[in-house]
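> example.struct
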């Protein structure tokens, strides 16, 4: 064994121990909560009073008659919507934050699956609060029933 090989543990031991302790401590530390583009209230999703802000989009004629996640056929003329977690059947007030127009929709589908979007509205519901020519609206949603 050479002189260089025999001193390695003594020379690097304290630094290696400090590095390992730092990694261990960092791994146990709590992380700050991450935020998304949609701000949400502290109420449980789906419970009456739950609110969320973000973007709404719509889906229309190409989905007409197709089965939604709840099993019912999609009808663009009805005031319905898709949300990732709010239970099927829940009634949600959707307010366009730019013009303060609101519509009440029933959740019957899952989605949207586009970052920043919090709700997909039927074209009928979307038209009640804004123009489909816009494609996306800034909204606040509130579970009301």
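> example.seq
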């Amino acid at each position: 064994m050479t002189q260089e090989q025999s001193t390695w543990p003594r020379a690097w031991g304290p630094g290696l121990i400090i590095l390992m302790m730092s990694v261990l401590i960092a791994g146990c530390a709590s992380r700050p909560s991450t935020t998304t583009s949609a701000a949400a209230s502290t109420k449980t999703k789906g419970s009456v009073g739950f609110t969320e802000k973000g973007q709404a989009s719509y889906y229309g004629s190409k989905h007409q008659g197709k089965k939604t996640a709840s099993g019912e056929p999609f009808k663009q003329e009805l005031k319905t919507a898709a949300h990732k977690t709010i239970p099927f059947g829940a009634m949600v007030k959707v307010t366009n934050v730019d013009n303060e127009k609101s519509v009440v929709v029933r959740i019957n589908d899952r989605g949207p699956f586009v970052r920043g979007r919090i709700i997909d509205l039927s074209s009928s519901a979307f038209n009640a609060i804004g123009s489909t020519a816009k494609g996306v609206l800034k909204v606040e949603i509130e579970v009301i029933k």
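> remarks
Confidence is low (pLDDT under 50) at residues 29-39.
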